[in-house]
Amino acid sequence: MNPLKSSQKNRLGHIVIEAVTPTVDCARYPVKRVMGESCTVEADIFGDGPAALAAVVKWRPALDESFAEAPMKSIGDDRWRGEFPLAENGRYFFAIEAWTRPFTSWLEYFTKKAATDLDPASDLAEGIALLDKIRLRASAEDRKLIAEHIALLRALNDPRQAVAVVSAPELTAAVDRNEERADAVNYDHTSAIVADRFRAQFSAWYEIFPRSQGKQPGRHASLREAEARLRDIGDMGFDVVYLSPIHPIGTTFRKGPNNSLVAAPDSPGSPWAIGSSAGGHTAIEPKLGTLDDFDHFVAVAERLGLEIALDLAIQCSPDHPWVTEHPEWFKHRPDGTIKYAENPPKQYQDIYPINFDSPDQKGLIEELHHVVAFWRRHGVKIFRVDNPHTKPVAFWEWLISTVQEEHPEVIFLAEAFTRPKMMRVLAKAGFTQSYTYFTWRNTKDELTEYLTELTRTPMIDYFRPNFFANTPDILPPILQEGGRPAFKSRLVLAATLSASYGIYSGYELCENEAIVGTEEYAHSEKYEIKVREWNRTDSLREFVARINSIRRGNPALQQFANLHFLATDNDQILLYAKSSADRSNVILVAVNLDPHHPHHCTAFVPADVVGSAPGQSYVVTDLLTGARYDWGESNYIRLDPQIEPAHILLVEPRP
Q1: Catalytic positions, written as ranges
Q2: Side-chain half-sphere exposure of 103, counting CA atoms within 13 A
Q3: Among 646, 595, 655, which residue's Cα sits nearest to residue 619?
Q4: What is the CA radius of gyration of the chain?
Q5: Are 649 and 585 in contact (CB under 8 A)?
Q6: Percent of the chain having pLDDT more than 70?
Q7: d(CA 538, CA 504)
Q8: Residue 2: band (very low, low, confident or very high) from pLDDT cuts 50, 70, 90
Q9: What is the dihedral of CA 214, 216, 220, 221, to 10 degrees?
């Protein structure tokens, strides 16, 4: 530890700055925020004596060379707080500087002494000397003002009368403007803040296989045909359409239906087996169309208020051009063959992993950067990254920061269902959003414990969850067994617990046929084309649209850290509250977690949660049904999953 921490490097510092927030791992990684907000900074700041202190937050956008300053104020117990605006989408840096205030310290001491019988004459002389030193540094106008006050002080007969002169607001303001930061101390670490666009915080995702968006069973749809589904997806209230990989699919070891090793002549193969003679990661599967068709698809989506998220899967089929052009980018067995992907007992003979320890590592990572930049030029601002936990964290830290330096609007979603610490460090390394364990959290205790971890620990500063209720790889048991009520309740949970959530297409049709004993879909769309009847009368599309409309209309549901769990006397009913920052919008959500049986409970809502006075009643409106109820601190709830498994209650503001 270097004891010479003041701005005068040959002198000992007298000020301690510690416990700075927000930071991630002592400023090793950036904190995540949203543009348009203010970043609130706090720190413990104190000295080794009674001297008065001042402090500022020094901040700048990453591309600016100089720091602006915002004042920090003491909020008690040596804790200080300041804030600065995050006006732009991009990266910011901030630091803290603190210094002693000799004149303010003297003024506090002199005022106390002048109120006693002790003679303050020599103390007044010290004050005049301090003012004279400040005068020499002041601007012309302030120099004149300070000189006038010094003259008044020297003309006094009784030094006690100096209190009124030295306390004059115009003098203390001039001192504030010109006092030297002679012993300023800076916090050792400069912290980074990533100010993302609002879509990073609040989004509703809908996942599709473009090739399955046609109307004829078994026939591969084109991107132009898939465009027809965009309006329907937009009408359901989604704002992000996530596409499975759209690149050419290899034929070597192509998988057949249900992941079989034998493909029929018409088997389309897995979109994640990327690459053929038609191209690799910057090409379009010919059956889908051309790059012009993709550009048209993106343009149509934008006109409908939708963004396209592209799958970024860093892996290759044996037919990918990289295999012959850059064999050094792959791992080779002793016999010279390239090793395919395995996750025993699963084997993926149609996929070659990338070797990040390649002797041509620089060429490899530059090519991967080129892939992302290529699709950004074609209108893609969101990438869902497949299995990022199987690639070096240092690579993601480099790639994401490099891309966002030029394109701060780009969002990266980490599809990493893996160990907790790996999931956390990927978020720290720069991933904008992250998949989570929500898919497997079903009971009241499981949900409460997991959401408390996400919202009440340091994870809140860097880990943005995206609650996917299902994926092409995961059909959780609750959906296999719970039928339509489970699909509705899990949708409500995903969409209201988290500010970002997603579903894989077919969810609204309550598709729940699994391979027995697994979480794998039977007749998985990963290996075959699936054409659906989207307008079935039993579809949940209207329910989905209602949920998304409620989310868009209520700012309380567009945040994550504002989650507050409330007590019920039945473990099958989960109750929680969310409110906007100004508390003008308060939402209460109750969900029956048992898809098979009705349940009732007493729900306890403390008055301060809804902004009412103790004992005061208020009106809530169920945004799902339109029903209105008088509520208070103790309330009766009954939820029948065959009718409606949840309440989403808007607390009506009082006049």
Answers
A1: 386, 415
A2: 24
A3: 655
A4: 31
A5: no
A6: 98
A7: 18
A8: very low
A9: -20
Angle at 324 between CA 318 and CA 328, to 5 degrees: 95
Euclidean distance between CA atoms 519 and 411, whole angstroms: 29
Phi, psi of 173 (to 5 degrees): -65, -40
Nearest to 630 by CA among 604, 652, 645: 652
Other C-beta atoms closer than 10 Å to the C-beta of 86 total 21
Whether residue 3 is predicted with pLDDT greater than 60 in this model: the reply is no
Closest CA to 470 of 452, 451, 496, 493: 493
Largest Cα–Cα separation, the chain:
108
Tokens of residue 316, six digits = 């290759």
Q: Do 636 and 628 form a contact (C-beta atoms < 8 A)?
A: no
Confidence of residue 9 (pLDDT cuts 50, 70, 90): low
Q: Which of 7, 91, 17, 34 is nearest to 433 (CA)?
A: 34
Q: Which two tokens stand for residue 208?
A: 């599709």
28-53: pLDDT as tens digits: 999 999 999 999 999 999 999 889 99
**Identity of the residue numbered 389:** H
Strands 411-415 and 382-386: parallel
CA gap 324, 307 in Å, rounded: 35
Q: Which two tokens stand for residue 143?
A: 């120099």
Question: Computed from CA positions of residues 292, 294, 297, 299, in that sequence, does the dihedral angle turn out positive or negative?
Answer: negative
Distance, CA of 238 to CA of 362 (rounded, Å): 39
Q: From CA 199, how far away is CA 235, in angstroms rounded?
A: 18
Residue 444 · residue 599 · CB < 8 Å? no
Q: What pTM, to 2 d.p., does this model score?
A: 0.94
Instruction: Report helix, strand or coil for 649.
Output: strand
Helices (H), 239-290: none
Query: What integer pLDDT is reported at residue 8 of this predicted model?
Result: 52
Residues 614, 186: Cα–Cα separation, whole Å: 46
From the list 548, 639, 627, 636, the residue with the least C-alpha distance to 591 is 639
| Distance of alpha carbon 267 from alpha carbon 350, whole angstroms | 13
Whether residue 214 contacts residue 225, with contact meaning beta carbons closer than 8 Å, is answered with yes
CB 81 within 8 A of CB 57: no
Contact 218, 183 (CB under 8 A): no
- Alpha-carbon gap, residue 31 to 430, rounded angstroms: 9
Which residue, among 646, 631, 652, has the nearest Cα to 590 in the 3D structure?
A: 646
Note the residue count of the chain. Answer: 655
Q: Report in angstroms the alpha-carbon separations of 15 from 34, 41, 45, 102, 187.
A: 32, 18, 7, 14, 10
**Nearest residue to 245 (alpha-carbon basis) of 415, 404, 364:** 415
Q: Helix 477-497 to helix 541-553 angle, to the nearest 10 degrees?
A: 20
For CA atoms 178, 180, 185, 191, give the dihedral sign: positive
Cα dist from 297 to 1, 227, 306, 307, 367, whole Å? 58, 6, 11, 10, 25
- Among 89, 79, 85, which residue's Cα sits nearest to residue 17? 79
Nearest to 177 by CA among 101, 126, 125: 101
Amino acid at site 514: A
For residue 485, give Cα distances in angstroms to 43, 140, 594, 642: 48, 76, 9, 6
Q: Write out the DSSP string of 390-455.
A: GS-HHHHHHHHHHHHHH-TT-EEEEE--S-HHHHHHHHHHT-SEE--SGGG--SHHHHHHHHHHHH
Alpha carbons 464 and 191: distance in angstroms, whole number: 19
632-650, pLDDT tens digit by residue?
Answer: 999 999 999 999 999 999 9
Q: Give me the amino acid identity at 386.
A: D
What average pLDDT does the chain have?
95
